[in-house]
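Newbie here. two chains, one complex. Structure please?
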Amino acid sequence: DAKTTQPPSMDCAEGRAANLPCNHSTISGNEYVYWYRQIHSQGPQYIIHGLKNNETNEMASLIITEDRKSSTLILPHATLRDTAVYYCIVRVLSGGTSYGKLTFGQGTILTVHP
Amino acid sequence: EAQVTQNPRYLITVTGKKLTVTCSQNMNHEYMSWYRQDPGLGLRQIYYSMNVEVTDKGDVPEGYKVSRKEKRNFPLILESPSPNQTSLYFCASSLNPRELDIQYFGAGTRLSVL
């Protein structure tokens, strides 16, 4: 699975959009981009995923660049409850030794302040 | 409510005393997995199971055992715990990682081995 690079920390004001970048310059054509978050030692929580097209769900939007080398997770109206570590993960949907395994990096600590 | 349930949430034990951490999911998921999380090392996969009676090693399987006798349960067994197994443990499940790989995590088990 491709390696990802994320800033170690970011701040955001409550009510504003939080834009979390992720660099995955070595991503291959069949690798998806997934985002999970972990709120203070709770279990990681799935947010969104995509392959090429931009995606939106009730939690967030995912913008993937045309060359797929980077992506941005957007929380449109951040709240204090969105303070968490956000992980960007790229992986294929296939078998082999990485079957089902999510490789979590260090992630981005997002702090939402009043 | 769809969930992954781990028990116990907190456990303090002594070196060498066998213990089992239980994990149960109510979503009829095929895939289940165990991770441990340590400061600076992120989440690392211990074992995973693709279906009943099918288990395989992850990245850090030494000192652990698992079993998958029923689809819903995937217990983690530490036959002879050691202090280096002090960690935060998460169980996860997914319907089918080859298709839509949204993984659901339990709330975690914080284990201290003295």
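Moderator note: The CA atoms of residues 9 and 109 of chain B lie 4 Å apart. The radius of gyration of chain B is 13 Å. Thread marked as resolved.
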